[in-house]
Amino acid sequence: GAGVSQSPSNKVTEKGKDVELRCDPISGHTALYWYRQSLGQGLEFLIYFQGNSAPDKSGLPSDRFSAERTGGSVSTLTIQRTQQEDSAVYLCASSPSRNTGELFFGEGSRLTVL
Amino acid sequence: DQQVKQNSPSLSVQEGRISILNCDYTNSMFDYFLWYKKYPAEGPTFLISISSIKDKNEDGRFTVFLNKSAKHLSLHIVPSQPGDSAVYFCAASARRGAQKLVFGQGTRLTINP
């Protein structure tokens, strides 16, 4: 498929465990974003990658959250020592350039922390 | 601090009638606005956008209106169709293409046959 691919689609974990969420953006898209949607809430910005520039991490809620983007393509969002409040749908999006403002979202990874 | 607000969590409209979804923002630096549509278990998809230099943008059945003085925008869908039933998110940025789109909480639209 040509869309943004995220894995796993569902993840159930125990409090205190680490989780990794993966995102494969659309080929050729230079910008990659992570958002999350908690139950009943809007989409909350987490982090943004643009080419080789330093990522904008201003939305990460705590130092337990980190993300990397290898080779300008695949991105991994890591949550260490998960807490129940981390339960949410984590959405990845990519964009072909900085000038459109139109993001292409994946289907999301639903994280449930017990 | 909710910079983009969608005060109606849900809206129910008869098929064929007009659906009007509203969005308010507080940040006067926002100058580019977008609407996204989201079906269950899918990611949001872009629907329509408007720049602050315009007060209206139309695309088929969808029209977005922007009132800068009131910091308010609305999405009109006419005529509404059952396939329009989804959650609609309003989003804003300080400039087109800016990395951080700020989203509202969403409005669940249900079109009744």
Strand tally of chain A: 10
Using only CA atoms, what is the Rg of chain B?
A: 13 Å
Structural class of chain B: mainly beta
Give the number of DSSP strands of chain B. Answer: 11
Report the β-strand fraction of chain A as a percent range. Answer: over 45%
Class by alpha and beta content of chain A: mainly beta
Percentage of residues in strands of chain B: over 45%
Structure description:
The complex is a heterodimer of chains A (114) and B (113). Chain A has 114 residues and is mostly beta strands. Helices cover 0% and strands 46% of the residues of chain A. Chain A contains no helices and 10 strands. In chain A, strands 2, 4, 5, 8, 9 and 10 form a 6-stranded mixed sheet that branches. In chain A, strands 1-3-7-6 form a 4-stranded antiparallel sheet, with no helix packed on it. In chain A, strand 8 and strand 9 (104-105) form a beta hairpin. The termini of chain A are far apart. In chain A, 35% of the residues are buried. Chain B is mainly β and 113 residues long. Chain B has strands at 4-5, 10-14, 19-25, 32-38, 45-51, 56-59, 62-67, 72-77, 86-93, 102-103, 107-112. The relative contact order of chain B is 0.34. The chains are: A mainly beta (114), B mainly beta (113). At the A-B interface, strand 4, strand 5, strand 8 and strand 9 of A face strand 4, strand 5, strand 9 and strand 10 of B.
Which labels suit this protein?
heterodimer; A: mainly beta; six-stranded mixed β-sheet; 10 strands; globular; B: 113 residues; mainly beta; five-stranded antiparallel β-sheet; 11 strands; 0% helix
